[in-house]
Model the fold of this input.
Amino acid sequence: MQAILLSREEVAHRAKQLYEGGIRQKVETEENIGKMVIIDIETGDYEVDKTGLQASRNLSKKHLNARLFGIRIGYNVAVSFGGVMERVSK
Done:
């Protein structure tokens, strides 16, 4: 199958659509706040773990060349370098 090149913005847009369309309701629990959810934007598969590293590895094993996007559960950004991560109010 031929790969379709997507911009970073399109990958992010698709991931956020999947997250808001059903993943959020499943993963946004008190014990998951602050963890990473990694989403395969082509299949809709996702996994949650503390840093996102193992989740990314697991999804990459399931789907070769998976297009992955990470979202920090409950926060407005995934990481912050010298800035502030704000908790998203629900």
About this structure: The chain is about 35% helix and 15% strand. The chain has a mean pLDDT of 87.
